[in-house]
Design brief:
Length: 64
């Protein structure tokens, strides 16, 4: 089944995509700042922080 998207909704979707991208860039900058301030150098450590932030995954995180 194909969904038809009219021009009004296409414009709204385009606006939403821009908003998502803008926030994603800001989000990346903040998270990378946290990773840097924690002095984490490995990709695995950075991935663990991302996983903790996005998925609330605590199995590899020790809260002090």
């Amino acid at each position: 089944m194909n969904i038809k998207i009219n021009k009004t909704h296409q414009k709204k979707i385009a606006t939403l995509r821009k908003l998502i991208e803008k926030h994603r860039i800001k989000e990346d900058k903040i998270i990378n700042g946290i990773i840097t301030s924690m002095d984490l150098h490995s990709d695995e450590a950075a991935e663990t922080i991302w996983d903790y932030i996005y998925n609330d995954s605590k199995w590899m995180v020790e809260l002090e």
